[in-house]
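Problem: given the chain below (129 residues), write out its structure.
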Amino acid sequence: MTRAWVVALALAVVACSRPAALGVVPYFPGAARVGTTSFIGEAHGFPAARWEQVELRTQAPYPQVREFYQRVRVSGWTSTFESEVPKSTGRVFSRYLADGRRRTFYVITVEERARSRDVLILLRRGIAR
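Solution.
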């Protein structure tokens, strides 16, 4: 094998080994993973937790991305809340999932960015301490 093939194969293995979900919330198909972060603290009205966040971007239409995350169903979860707010730069859809028994919380944010014509997706998972 040539060196170029070895490098290409290694990059393909790394790309395939990345997770395609944050816990029970899947990534939008074809979205590019931009970054990840984590922190410990209170956030989004939930108690102190260890939070993980994944940032995704896609060129898919905002309504398609919003509908994808509206359809995410997790059986046995005790609470959900959704809201959509118009902004001067686009729309923002938020969905909160919580389960007190599991002490786990998810916050899904889909933000339309009209100027750049892309959609920002923030997936956050909090596990209560």
